[in-house]
Amino acid sequence: MGTYRLLVAYDGSGFHGYASQRDVRTVQGTLEAALGPVTGMVETSVAGRTDAGVHATGQVVSFATDRDVDPAVVQRAVNARTGPEIAVLAAERADDEFHARFSATGRQYRYVVLNREAPDPFLAQTAWHVGTALDLDAMNAAVAPLVGEHDFASFCRKAEGRSTVRAVRWAWWRRHADRVELSVAATSFCHQMVRSIVAVAVDAGRGRLDPEDVPEILAARDRSAVRGAAPPHGLTLVAVAYPGSPLVRPDWVAATS
């Protein structure tokens, strides 16, 4: 029995999320079906179970098989069956103790907002179109109180009795031409946490919410304190950290965040 590790990218537009579900198309189901002819029937583990419509450029998947397979063959075989929607960027043999989810020490996401009056058909699946002007300073003021270890119950959906305490390492917005982009990293994220953070920040950018109210929203530990979540299609999982392989803060992210 050997353990293998895949670095995977996918366009989440045509999938009902990562996790397998009966009678719907998922990333996991499609990936496992493509692995089968090479590895035999396997069940994959994943660093982050992304929702329907969410994308990934740096997702990590692991699986165990009793077949002695060449990682390069696995990569070519899967890409031949799933590309370009799902692409295995790298494949390698891993330590038997490695687990894509439980070995991870951090995750990094990107959220993109197209901020201009007219939509862009070529970004319709990867960016949230917001036609009103956004105040970038207000958006950064809104996410600044979220950095550090807090109970994010106000920002999490379906906690179901599990802890909602998370440690956010950084959260910062930048503007690049007509796109406004968030980089956010944490030990882990609970369900819809990033999209809820985006919703709060965009409300602040529109002038609908005072950034000074964010600490009170956080302290409420009440999901009703946040008005919904941003659309899933603007969100991308970009990196996962493991022991010896930490997340790298983007150069443009403010050191004070």
- What is the number of helices? 5
The tally of domains stands at 2
CATH secondary-structure class of the largest domain: Alpha Beta
Coarse morphology: globular
> Strand content of the residues, in percent?
25-35%
For the terminal residues, how far apart are their CA atoms? 44 Å
CATH topology-level fold name of the largest domain = Alpha-Beta Plaits
- SSE class: alpha+beta
Radius of gyration over alpha carbons? Answer: 19 Å
CATH architecture of the largest domain: 2-Layer Sandwich
| Helical amount | 10-25%
Number of strands: 10
Largest sheet: 10 strands, mixed
Uncertain stretches of 5 or more adjacent residues: none
Question: Could you tell me the mean pLDDT?
Answer: 96
What's the order of the H and E elements?
A: EHEEHEEEHEEEHHE
In CATH, the homologous superfamily of the largest domain goes by the name: Pseudouridine synthase I, catalytic domain, C-terminal subdomain
Protein described:
The protein is of the alpha+beta class and 257 residues long. Strands 1, 2, 3, 4, 5, 6, 7, 8, 9 and 10 form a ten-stranded mixed sheet that branches. The mean pLDDT is 96. 21% of the residues lie in helices and 28% in strands. It is built from five helices and ten strands; from the N terminus they run E-H-E-E-H-E-E-E-H-E-E-E-H-H-E. It is globular and about 55 Å long.
